[in-house]
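lol forgot to send this yesterday, sorry. struct tokens for the thing we talked abt
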């Protein structure tokens, strides 16, 4: 019996070559997209899975209710108090530096080593890396201890057995206490070296309001994180009570004004993709879910094609069903036969999609900057489950439909003239075109939003400005900057030199509370040289620039942006009359002397935040942290000037250190990359959807028009023109396309409006994508169906009328 079923299946595959190809093609494309996005999702979810203690480790995260802002920083005393007073806590580790680069000298070599990490001494209790040399216990206890990775040990000493060796960093000797192997699994925490900044820890031990650290807490086995979160509120209230007296307000006022007001613990293995804020950067879970949903839609679209084509072929198999029922075939056996035919196609598509996925994986990895390989059993299992779901969806409906034919009707040949199933086919064809319309509208709106962001006036000019990092931070970094500024200014091709802490597109951010009477806002703090804002071509709206001839401009004067003034709710005139108290410089009053037009420092996804600019000499905290030099280059010989600046840097400024620089406008452009990738992916998915949908539409229209060839012959004999015949054959499909677009419009409007809400600078919902979708879908439907309709008008009249 099975052999007979297979023979019948092969005959039908061969007889309906076009629909067989379309079903195979559509399902293969859909399953390939599903697998690729699934692998991307699995890869993002796999971070920190290697850690055997991951179920006990949680990242600290806080909520500031006043601004609805999530933070990831904590102060040293808050972390220590939580460890001491919350019984659910087993251990904690704090850190305040990641991806640090330092020049290291050993008796063997001198090298610049990147990827450093500063941490408290119990780092290895949280991240149990395999120790190759030395020991993890007490590896970071001393402030002169350093642990290094295998790669760093080979680079610095030429061997992994480096425990006990000495490394000199900035004239301080460190002893290597451990050499470790970095984990093979995905991890955001892969330091090349680790040491403890003991002096900084000592200075911050009583600084309750200096939120300079990230923190992981390890809870006891079986402890409930929500219990920890609730108990931590008492510690926050204790901190508010301590600080309120100094601020001259009640503890409740301090708590509400400054926060944080609530804390959350994020499981270590969810930090990458699900944290609201993370020290190590967040993944984009929402985008992954959008892409995954779209890939599932493509598979569904392929399944719809399958159902449509199989039910449309019903008239060709009506007599087969009638004969089999007449000789004793049961409904169940017929259903199993038709179900087997579907399963063979789906299984073949599955194997083809595996091959296509392997073929596309290198390009996919390059696009997402990943190293995914097709060896995860989850991908095989989930994609096979999707195949089974498609088999059930695509096979069960046609099988049930075909097995229900009545033997007498089909043997009389009445089925071809029956309207049985027309409504069903039209319904699922409408669903297919609704999905196609959604992709067209969504793609056009995404394109418009990305174009809007690319063309937006950023409020500054970063062209031809090199941002050079100072790798060697001296105890008096501002003096180093002033010396290098004079020497760089003499290089041929250099137009101007300046310094600014807040650099567009860098992602580096320093902020503080800024107080006025009983008002307080969180604002970014940007120390700078006198000419920095003019250097960037930022527009001054009111007041004046900083003046090197005024002593007060290195003591207590600031320039703010429009967002700063609006956040306080002042007019420009009121702003110039206020004296402010910044949290980073307690006891000192600052006065606003200028207001500049808002300009973007971060991605255009975010609103422009309040920011205050002041001279770096104004605050010791800023003066000792001048970390970059920015050089504006004349446009006539950019390459030559860059080469001269590089030579000066490597021979005179920082010999032995890498020349670490970028152009500001190019770095800011990278903030658009994620959205450009979304645009590219949606364009590819659009092409896939339209291809699958139109091929399915062509095959379905071919089958349905073939059923009407006798009607065409009769009407042509009665004098109907080709135009009338083509329009008559295509009108049904055109009406379906119209209905599909009308259904898709409210769905698209709602979903795309939700997507646009993520952007601070967004387009208003445009009308033209909906109009374009209507015209494109209508045009493509007519073009595809009319090809077959026109061929039908050339029908051989004698062939279809000789028996009438």
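and heres what i got for the seq, position by position
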């Amino acid at each position: 019996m099975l052999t007979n079923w297979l023979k019948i299946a092969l005959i039908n595959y061969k007889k309906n070559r076009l629909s067989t190809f379309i079903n195979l093609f559509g399902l293969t494309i859909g399953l390939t997209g599903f697998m690729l996005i699934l692998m991307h999702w699995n890869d993002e979810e796999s971070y920190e899975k290697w850690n055997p203690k991951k179920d006990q480790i949680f990242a600290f995260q806080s909520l500031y209710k006043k601004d609805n802002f999530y933070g990831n920083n904590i102060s040293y005393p808050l972390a220590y108090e939580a460890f001491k007073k919350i019984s659910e806590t087993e251990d904690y580790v704090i850190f305040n530096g990641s991806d640090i680069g330092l020049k290291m000298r050993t008796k063997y070599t001198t090298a610049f080593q990147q990827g450093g990490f500063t941490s408290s001494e119990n780092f290895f209790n949280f991240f149990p890396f395999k120790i190759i040399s030395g020991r993890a216990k007490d590896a970071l206890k001393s402030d002169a201890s350093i642990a290094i990775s295998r790669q760093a040990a080979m680079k610095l000493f030429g061997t992994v057995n480096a425990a006990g060796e000495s490394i000199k960093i900035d004239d301080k000797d460190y002893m290597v206490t451990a050499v470790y192997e970095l984990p093979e699994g995905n991890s955001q925490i892969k330091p090349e070296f680790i040491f403890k900044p003991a002096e900084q820890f000592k200075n911050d031990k009583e600084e309750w309001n200096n939120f300079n650290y990230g923190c992981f807490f390890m809870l006891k086995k079986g402890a409930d994180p929500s219990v920890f979160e609730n108990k931590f509120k008492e510690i926050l209230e204790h901190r508010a009570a301590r600080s309120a007296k100094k601020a001259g307000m009640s503890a409740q006022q301090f708590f509400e004004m400054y926060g944080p007001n609530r804390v959350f613990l994020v499981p270590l293995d969810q930090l990458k993709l699900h944290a609201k804020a993370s020290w190590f950067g967040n993944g984009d879970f929402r985008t992954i879910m959008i892409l995954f949903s779209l890939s599932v839609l493509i598979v569904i679209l392929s399944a719809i094609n399958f159902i449509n084509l199989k039910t449309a072929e019903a008239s060709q198999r009506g007599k087969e069903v009638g004969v089999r029922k007449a000789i004793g075939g049961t409904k169940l056996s017929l259903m199993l036969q038709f179900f087997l035919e579907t399963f063979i196609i789906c299984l073949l598509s599955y194997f083809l999609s595996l091959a296509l996925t392997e073929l596309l994986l290198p390009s996919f990895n390059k696009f997402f900057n990943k190293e995914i390989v097709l060896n995860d059993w989850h991908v095989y299992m989930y994609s096979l489950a999707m195949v089974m779901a498609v088999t059930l969806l695509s096979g069960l409906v046609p099988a049930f439909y075909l097995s229900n034919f009545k033997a007498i009707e089909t043997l009389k040949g009445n089925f071809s003239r029956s309207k049985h199933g027309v409504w069903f086919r039209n319904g699922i064809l409408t669903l297919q075109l609704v999905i196609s319309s959604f992709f067209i509208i969504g793609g056009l709106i995404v394109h418009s939003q990305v174009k809007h962001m690319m063309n937006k006036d950023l409020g500054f000019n970063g062209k031809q400005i090199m941002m050079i990092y100072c790798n060697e931070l001296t105890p008096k970094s501002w003096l180093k900057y002033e010396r290098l500024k004079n020497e760089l200014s003499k290089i041929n091709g250099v137009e101007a030199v300046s310094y600014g802490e807040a650099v567009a597109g860098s992602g580096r951010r320093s902020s503080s509370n800024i107080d006025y009477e009983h008002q307080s806002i969180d604002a970014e703090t940007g120390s700078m040289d006198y000419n920095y804002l003019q250097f960037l071509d930022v527009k001054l709206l009111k007041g004046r620039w900083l003046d090197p001839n005024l002593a007060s401009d290195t003591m207590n004067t600031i320039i703010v942006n429009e967002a700063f003034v609006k956040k306080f709710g002042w007019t420009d005139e009121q702003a110039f009359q206020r004296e402010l108290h910044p949290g980073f410089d307690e006891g000192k009053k600052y006065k606003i002397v200028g207001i500049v037009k808002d300009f973007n420092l971060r991605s255009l996804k975010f609103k422009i935040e309040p920011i205050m600019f002041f001279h770096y000499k104004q605050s010791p905290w800023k003066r000792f942290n001048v970390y970059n030099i920015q050089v504006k280059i004349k446009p006539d010989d950019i390459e030559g000037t860059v080469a001269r600046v590089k030579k000066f840097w490597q021979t005179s400024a920082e010999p032995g250190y890498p020349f670490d620089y970028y152009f500001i406008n190019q770095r800011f452009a990278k903030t658009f990359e994620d959205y450009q990738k979304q645009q590219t992916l949606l364009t590819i998915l659009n092409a896939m959807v339209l291809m699958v949908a139109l091929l399915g539409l062509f095959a379905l229209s071919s089958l349905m028009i073939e059923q009407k060839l006798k009607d065409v012959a009769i009407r042509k004999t009665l004098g109907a023109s080709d135009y009338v015949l083509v329009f008559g054959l295509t009108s049904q499909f055109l009406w379906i396309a119209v209905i599909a677009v009308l259904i898709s419009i409210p769905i698209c409007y709602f979903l795309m409006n939700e997507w646009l809400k993520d952007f601070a600078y967004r387009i208003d919902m445009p009308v033209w994508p909906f109009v374009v979708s209507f015209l494109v879908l209508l045009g493509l439907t007519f073009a595809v169906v009319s090809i077959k309709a026109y061929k039908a008008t050339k029908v051989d009249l004698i062939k279809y009328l000789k028996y009438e």
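The two ends are 40 Å apart (CA to CA). anyway ping me if u want another try
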